[in-house]
Design a protein that fits this description.
2 domains, Alpha-Beta Plaits, Rossmann fold, alpha/beta
């Protein structure tokens, strides 16, 4: 029998502009941990990007180019889960309550002073690396479970794999019925700034708030998935671009009135939404449709955020109202009635009536069945009950 395979030692990234401090830490942990040394925060950040074997970060506060607080902010704002979840210990030359509190708010896991003994330092490193390994294993298990389940166990929304599967079914059905399939990509504006200013836990609360709002305001046949900490995708069958844009604009209005408070600070949330439709954009696959909507979300964020973007650029409420006054597809309306989607038809009744009026006049002329043509021809759009989109307000 061969020798049992030796497990690699966990790697610690030591970031300090003092070579002597780095050397003293290395002396204390050598033989128990692998290590990598960097002399400032910027170099430490670059090391994290290229070295996925790093399991813990030990960083000084005062350093050139990028200090310890800046490095910590970048780590907690990272979209890469392997970096975002890394344990971080902040080291300082002296006990400083203000520095400790700021480090904690930015997401530091621990705070130690230089000159700490070997036993205590190793105990803290052991504890945090074990926690990181457990967290990583749980994340891997969650990801494996998510691949087999239609529902993400953390967000409660549909998994990305289910979204893709469901989307292909909806796309095939839309092609057979000559109906529309639309996608919204919603992204929280300035999410990195929110994370850096208030910490990852507050940013996660904002994400959960938006997640809950979306899950209660979409239709049963819609599918919602969280793609990144700040980005959501809504797949909406039998809905055109105008219907999706109307829903996005209503979501913006709801968020405009929402104010979250944290330590006497009032936090306001806004979103940028890209919308795309299979018929309007001539797209044949769900992945293409999501890519088109995502690109429009990116364009909206570059333009300043807090806007809805379609194929012609920013979409306003006036544009949506104008689109809804145009002639509608009776075939699509019948499909929606068959699916029980009466809210959408109620919202479009004026346009439906206007489109059907020539046929109704012919029926009345031939059968004389008492169709109230005068009343229908003067149908007032403002008197229609319901809302202006497929999703619930």
């Amino acid at each position: 029998m061969g020798e049992p395979e030796q497990q690699p030692l966990p790697k610690v990234l030591i970031v300090d502009d003092s070579r002597m401090v780095r050397a003293s830490i290395v002396k204390l942990i050598r033989g128990r941990f692998e290590f990598r040394e960097e002399s400032d925060g910027e170099a430490g950040w670059q090391a994290l990007l290229v070295d996925p074997t790093i399991e813990l970060v030990l960083t000084d506060i005062g350093m050139p180019q990028l200090d310890g607080y800046g490095l910590l902010e970048r780590i907690r704002a990272s979209q890469l889960s392997r970096i975002h979840e890394l344990p971080v210990i902040v080291i300082s030359g002296e006990e400083d309550g203000g520095a400790r509190e700021r480090a904690r708010q930015l997401g530091a896991n621990d705070f130690i002073t230089k000159g700490i003994g070997a036993t205590e330092l190793i105990a803290r490193l052991d504890s945090l690396t074990r926690l990181a390994q457990t967290t990583r294993q749980l994340e891997e298990s969650r990801a494996a479970l998510a691949r087999q389940s239609p529902v993400d166990p953390v967000s409660g929304l549909a998994t990305e794999s289910y979204l893709n599967w469901r989307g292909e079914q909806d796309m095939a059905l839309a092609r057979r019925r000559q109906a529309d399939l639309s996608v919204l990509v919603l992204e929280i504006d300035r999410y990195d700034q929110l994370t850096a200013q208030y910490g990852a836990h507050v940013a996660q609360l904002v994400t959960r708030k938006l997640s809950g709002m979306l899950s209660t305001k979409v239709r049963k046949e819609d599918t919602v998935t969280q793609m990144t900490p700040s980005q959501f995708v809504v797949l909406s069958p039998s809905t055109d671009l105008a219907g999706c844009a109307a829903f996005a604009l209503r979501m913006q209005k709801v968020l405009d009135k929402l104010v979250m408070t944290y330590r006497d600070d009032r936090i306001r949330i806004s979103i940028t939404v890209g919308v795309a439709s299979s018929r309007g954009d001539g797209v044949q696959t769900v992945s293409e449709l999501i890519n088109v909507a995502t690109a429009r979300t990116g364009a909206g964020k570059q333009a300043g955020g807090n806007r809805v973007v379609g194929d012609q650029g920013e979409i306003t409420q006036e544009m949506v109202d104008r689109l809804r006054q145009q002639v509608v597809s009776i075939d699509q309306a019948l499909v929606q009635v068959g699916q029980g989607d009466t809210e959408e038809i109620v919202a479009q009744l004026p346009a439906v009536v206007a489109t059907l009026m020539p046929l109704l006049r012919l029926i009345e002329a031939q059968l004389g069945c008492g169709i109230p043509l005068d009343r229908l021809s003067h149908y007032n759009p403002n008197s229609a009950s319901g809302n202006d989109g497929t999703q619930k307000a």
